[in-house]
Amino acid sequence: MPTTSATTHKLADVRLAQQLLGLLPRIGPVWQAAVRDTNSGSAVRMKVLGLLSRSGPTRAGELAHVCGITPPAMTEMIESLVEDTHARRDPDPTDRRAVLIAITPAGQVEVDRVQAAATAALLTSLERLSAEQRARLRAALTDLEHVLTSASKESRNVR
Predict the structure, then answer these.
(1) What range does the domain containing 98 cover?
(2) Residue 16 lies in a domain
(3) Which of 23, 74, 108, 145 is deepest in the core (most CB within 10 A)?
(4) pLDDT tens by residue, the chain, 159 residues
């Protein structure tokens, strides 16, 4: 069967997706080391705070879904974050029976500390790239972030 341009393109896209997924095991440890080095608890705890920081107040069920943990485990996590004054429970203006979990200023400080530590670690690797390579990477990541953010919003509207 002859290989067409469309088939090659699809195979190239598959390889690109595989390359991106292959980076996760390399980037994850950088984040985990930053969490450990800043004494910020667990990586999942920081994932919850990071989500709240980026997305704003969110229901516990959505946090559990995105983090891949059970609702009871998320309830315990939220309780711990509230006790540590890193998060708070706010009434959901669209459903008086529900609450939204929001990050507090203290929680944002934790996110910023871990982010700074992880950024410093990644800068070491980025410095090995030329200015042109960094510019291309910056543009590609901006595009990817836009596409993934749009896809995430669309999937939320479907549920």
Answers:
(1) 29-128
(2) no
(3) 74
(4) 555 565 667 888 899 999 999 998 999 999 999 999 999 999 999 999 999 999 999 999 999 999 999 999 999 999 999 999 999 999 999 998 999 999 999 999 999 999 999 999 999 999 999 999 999 999 999 999 999 888 766 665 544
Burial class (CB in 10 A: 0-12, 13-18, 19+), 12: exposed
Please give the pLDDT value at position 148: 87
Cβ contacts of residue 130 below 8 Å, gap of 6+? none
Whether residue 150 is contained in a domain is answered as yes
Which helix (DSSP H) or strand (DSSP E) does residue 86 occupy?
A: none
Q: Is 76 among the domain residues? A: yes
Strand-pair partners of 88: 102
**Number of other residues whose CB lies within 10 A of the CB of residue 74:** 22
Question: Using CA atoms, how far apart are residues 80 and 33, in angstroms rounded to an integer?
Answer: 21
Buried (b) or exposed (e) across 88-113, using 16+ Cβ within 10 A?
Answer: beeeeeeeeeebbbebbeebeebbeb
- 46/105 same-domain check: yes
